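Task: sequence in, structure out. Protein: Peptidase.
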Amino acid sequence: MPSYIVTCKDDATPEQVLAAKKHATDQGGKIGHEYTLIKGFSVTFPDDAVQTMEQHEHVKAVEADGEIKTQ
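Result:
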């Protein structure tokens, strides 16, 4: 299953972030890392569930997780 980074909206409360995580697990996802610098988390789940995460009311962005390199 692919992995994604889910970023919640800047004004999301801790309860709203929890609601987004619950939505992800309800869609068959598995929460990986929970971030502290941003309101977000990583999740792995089937491709067809990505669109439902992007439409969640407390989610700002969903991006494919991957390695980042600097020069």
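The mean pLDDT is 88.
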